[in-house]
Amino acid sequence: MKIKLDENMPATLNAILTAYGHDTDTVHEEGLTGSSDHEVWQEAQRAGRFLITQDLDFSNLRQFQPGSHYGLLLVRLPNPSRQSLIEHIGSAFKTEAIETWQRCFIVLTDRKIRIRRP
Question: What is the distance between the alpha carbons of residues 46 and 72, in angstroms, rounded to a whole number?
Fold first, then answer.
């Protein structure tokens, strides 16, 4: 899967997801740090990438309707420390059928994963 990590994701995730066989890039690597959410989203879509973020500006299911994009994972943890983000996202990508997440709107919490499919 082609993935883009938003700037609020730990850089370590890039190496972890790449080790799992994903083509991963980051907002930082592309020089988009500090860019608007709209710019980050447009670049992810232009490149055909699944976006992973904690940014609540991406939480509107109507705006980010499943099937209208390459995929969005919104991470909502009560204590989103760097280590907690790495553990939860790494675990999900190791144990879940990630290939079925393309074009979906997914919310990852500390207790469950909600997947909205096209």
Answer: 14
Residue by residue, DSSP assigns 58-102 as: G--TTTT-TTSSS-EEEE--SS--HHHHHHHHHHHHHHS-GGGGT
Mean pLDDT by 10-residue block, N- to C-terminus, for the chain (118 residues)? 97 96 95 94 97 97 96 97 97 95 97 97
Q: What is the pTM of this model?
A: 0.96
**Strand, helix or coil for residue 19:** helix
DSSP bridge partners of 108: 75, 113
Closest CA to 8 of 69, 66, 60, 57: 57
